[in-house]
Write a structure and sequence with these properties.
92% helix; mainly alpha; elongated
Length: 74
Amino acid sequence: MHRWHTAMKLIGVGWYIALSIAGGTLGGLWLDNKLDTKPVFIISGLFIGMIVAFYGVYRMIIPLMKNNTDKENS
């Protein structure tokens, strides 16, 4: 049962990455269309989305790694 719980958390991490990057890029595209400043905000949104994704993944993965090492040491 524990493996399914971990697998579902990892699937959630994948969705988090995809939605963060897509959200940043689409937000940048929307701003570029509103302000007529093509690729500036698309690129900025992409980088912001990637930063948010990596930080979020770090925050989600650390507890999983701690749980795994605690069980190995027991």
